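[scheduler] slot 2 assigned
[scheduler] job type: sequence-to-structure, two independent chains
[scheduler] chain ordering preserved from manifest
[runner] begin chain α
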Amino acid sequence: MKFERFVGIDPSLRTGFVALSPFGEVIEAKEIEREGDDPARMSELIRAVVDSVHDTDFVAIEGFGYASRRGFLLGGIGWGMRMELYRRGIQYVDVAPSLLKKFAGAKGNANKERVVLEVYKRWGFESNSNNVVDAFILAQIARAAKTEMKLIQAQREVLNKLLKESIPVRSFSGDLIKKSPLGMMQGCQPHHSPYQGGLQMNCKQ
C-alpha cells in the first residue's frame, strides 16, 4: 500500500508526535498530554495520540526503557498505544532507544543533549521538547523503511537490525496476516537500492 505520512511516536506522559511527508517535510510536530488522575488520564492520552494517526500512516514507536515505577507507568501507556494501533490495523515498528540514537548519528548511550545536536546538524530540526525530537527521529526511521533515501552506514545498520525483528500485523479488514518484519504485508520482500541505500519493498499484487 502507499503510505501518505510517516509518523514517529515517543510514548510518555508528554508524548512526542511527529508526522513527515514522503519527502521528509514536517507535517505535524507536537507534544500530547492530558491532565487528571489515572487511569482516566492514561486512557485519554492514549486515545488522543492514536486519534492523531491516519489509516494510511506508517508508524515507528520507541521501545520500552528501564523498569521502575515510572517505567511501569510509561509501559502501560506504550502498550495501550500499541494495542490501539493494532486494533485499527495500522502498521508499526518498535525501535529500541539505542537504535533511535544511532540513526540520528549519536552513540547508543549518548545523552539527550548530544542527540538534539545531531538531529539539528543532520536535518536542521529543533524543538523545545526532547520527546518531539525523539519522535522526529522515529518518523525518519519510518520514512527510511518505506521510501528511497540516502542513508549513512549507521542508519543502514539500524534498518537491517529492525528487519530481523518481527511484529504482528493486521490487514485493514482487521484480519491477522502473519508476523512480519517492519510491518510488511504477506508477499512483500525488502531490497536495498544500489543507488541511494534506501530500503524498499517489492510486493506481489
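[runner] end chain α
[runner] begin chain β
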Amino acid sequence: MPHEFLGLPDGHQLRQDAKLAVNHVHDHVAAVCELHGLPHVGGDQEAAVGCDLERSPRTVAVAEGPPTAAARTGPRPHSVIAAARREGRVTLAETESRTLLGDAGLAFAAMEVVGSASEAAAAAERAGCPVAVKLLSRHIVHKSDAGGVVLDVATAADARAAYEAIVANARAHARAQGLPDDALAATVSPMQAAPVAELLVGACRDPQLGPVLTIGAGGIWVEVLRDVAHRVLPVDAEDIEAAIGELRVSALLAGARGGEAARLGPIVRAAGAVAACLTRWPDVVEVEVNPLFVYEERVVPVDARVVLRDASVRDATPP
C-alpha cells in the first residue's frame, strides 16, 4: 500500500513506485534532483513531486494524473490569516497560531486568555496551581525577551502579581523597541510535568528547496545545541522517524540511562501537522513549535509561532 505523504499540497495524490520526477508544479524539484542525482524530466503535465533525499535507493513519488480542482484553486484563506492581513501583521499571535495549527491537526493543552489581574487570579484557581502566565501580544513576538513569561505560579495571588508584572514589562519593552501600542493580555495554563525530552518542530519555505521540515532538540538551548535535521516536503512517517534518529537527543527518546522511552508516533503526527500548516495555506511561510514536550505516550506543544508572507513583497519561493 502507498505511504501517506505529509506536507503535500491539498488535492494532490502520490504513488510511491514511480522513478521519474515530472517537474512542473514545483520548479525547485529539478534543482534538488540534479543536486542529489535523481532522474527527472521537464514536462507540461501538472504533477506534484516528493523527493526522498535520504533513502537509498533514491526514488521519487509522482502524482498520478493532474491535480484536483482543490489543488488548482488553492484553499480558502483561514479566518485568522485574514484577520492578521486586515491589521497589517505578518506574525500571528499565540492564540491565532494555536487555532491555525489546531485546524492542521495539532492538539494543544488547555489555556485561558485573561485581560486583567483579577481575571488571571480567577483563571489560576480554575486551572489549579501551579500555572504559567504568559504575555499575549499582537506585536511582541519574543515573550521572554520582554519579561512576559512567569512560570510555576503557585497561588491565585501570585497569578495576579505575575499579570501586573508582565503587562508593565511589556509596555516598557514596546516603548524601548518603538512598537505600536497594543491591547495587552495574558494566557494562563497549567504547568506541564517534566517531559522525556523537548523538541523543536518547524517548517519554512526555503528559496531554493521550497517547503522544508525541521525537527531537532528544542527548549531554551535550541540555538546552542544546534541538534537538528531537515527534510524537503512532502515526507512520510518513515522520513520523519529517520530524521529523529539522526538527532543526538534521540538517545533520550529511546530511554537513555534507564529513562522511559517515548513512542515516535505522536511526534510524527505533530510534525505532520506542522508540515500541513505550511503547505495548506500559501500565506504561511514559517511555522515553529518550540518546545514540543515529549512524554512516553503523547506530546504537548507548549509555544507556537506562525509567520505569514509579506503581502507587499512578491515572493519567488517555490510553493
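[runner] end chain β
[qc] chain β: Residues 13-73 have pLDDT under 50 and may be disordered.
[scheduler] slot 2 released
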